Amino acid sequence: MTIRKAVIPAAGIGSRLLPLTKAIPKEMLPVGDKPVIEHTVRELVASGITDITIVVSGGKSLIQDHFRPNAALVAQLRADGKTAYADAVEEVGELGRQGHITYLDQHGPYGNGTPVLNAARHLGDEPMLVLWPDDVFVAEVPRAQQLIDAYEKTDAAVLALMPMDPSESQRYGVPVVEETVGEGLMRISGLKEKPKPDDAPSAFAAIGGYVVTPGIIAELRKQVDNWYTHRTGEVYLTDAINIFATENPVYGQVIRGRWYDTGNPADYLTAQFASALAHPEYGPVLRQLVAE
Q1: SS3 291
Q2: 252 is in which domain, residue-wise?
Q3: Residue 111 in this model has a pLDDT that exceeds 90
Q4: ω before 19 within 30° of 0 (cis)?
Q5: Per residue in 64-77, pLDDT tens?
Q6: What is the domain count for the chain?
Q7: Residue 291 belongs to some domain of the structure
């Protein structure tokens, strides 16, 4: 089955970036000349995804406004002779049409598994991509496409992986690798969350990006049902994947490319700086500033 649907959970409050995110959703903070969530949407559209569900919460209307076509603004820009700006605004609206973006309000217990389950109820019983909206990947082949390719080889759930320095293991979920298939693809039996370097089961980190299969959705549903019975803890996607992986095949795909996390101030500034340095107009200006 070819993957054509994707979920972007965008209901978080961006607490690690406060007070910057007090009024501006973290997904709308710019990286280069685009808000970070637009990088994710572009990646999905470039990978052939035709149904994107963005799960939001209160105060996220700027996301909808950004992708909504604005014919009046385009017409005004063209009348003023600002053709390049008009084309850029029009293209963003076209992204929403190409990706058939729909929005869904999050409801249920806290945790990043909840928005995935919310969206799955509307997307049917088929595999889907899940990408976080605060990741930016720079790659010749989009990360989403690499995950889709891995799914088509394995017909199983897939996690995006990157090589890591063992000293940084306490920042990530680290996969338990059972078998190396080749070309960066490996079968895994679970994740160990933030282990000490001596306890890390491999030299890879699980980063943003998943192919989620119906079996994982079923496990998420069990977790949410249990939460409503006991109302303790949180519902996490990785917990469902871990349980599912004990009896079902799950794979990790090492992503070829560069990953930028924008979820905290230092990493956000790094992503901004790297994007600017790569820009043909802004890069020389910044290099001159550093030299001075």
Answers
A1: helix
A2: 5-263
A3: no
A4: yes
A5: 999 999 999 999 99
A6: 1
A7: no
